[in-house]
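User: Here's a chain of 308 residues. Predict its fold as tokens.
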Amino acid sequence: MTFVTPRNALCHFLKNEMPLTLNQTFEVMITKILVPTDFSYLSSQAVQVAIELATRFNAEIILYTNLNLPTNWDELPEDSKKHYPEELQRIYNINVLFRDYSKQIQANGVKSTLVFSGGDISKSIQRVCDKHQVDFIVMATHGLSRINELLVESNTQTTIRGVHCPVLAIKEDMTNLKFKNLVFASSFNEVDKPAFEKVLAFAKMFDSTIHLVCINTSSFFTQPGVLIRAAMDDFEKMCGAVPCKKHFYSGFDIESGVVNFAERVKADLIAISNHTTHPIRRIVKGRNPVDLLVNRAQIPVLTLDYAS
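Assistant: Prediction complete.
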């Protein structure tokens, strides 16, 4: 008989292996939380959320910042680095800022580490996640106007799209981390079940009520209603003892429908699968609705991507 321990529960959670059922007693373990930061006020809010999560899960915080460094900086001999005075000054400045952050983090009994690199942000973050076995990312985002959504991308957007790791995107100060009402927006296909297993485990830790919502638009969810209801029933059964409610909600588009529904049920968190072959991505042309949802929602959004 295989006993479920916090450690092997973590392995299932991170590696996306055969999901554990809620009938098995375990707690989701988050051991390393990555916080990409530019040391601005907004990113400091992400650090505050990470501290609260780290305290709850007894986890370590890894602060990552992207500097304008040569891509081969880590391979350069120390003597060669002396020929890059501006880059060395940036590194010195970042370490000074990190010491201030580190004192704040350590005051809460949490260990912290600073990692920096140059190059593409999302690719660099994925490398950091792989190297340091990161299992959760907390990022702050400004969001974009509807016009800018068509023209520019935020670092949060590129990170969400580029990494295979749960990402919690926040926009405002969260002094008390509570997720009483959690919305899971989905097309309720089989491809969403691995992500939903993670949502269930997260909801269990925060004593959340899960709201399963199907957004009905003129061009989305073309399956007959009876089939969608049957699919939602399967997800409801997966909830076990976790409080769960099913909803159909009409919206002009997916992202506005999800945002409006979340406001209606006074949700504290929106969760959505962000798999690279997700049906939502295939149906909607152009920008990824997950990107738009992160931009427009005023509450935290948890995106769940996975490699396989």
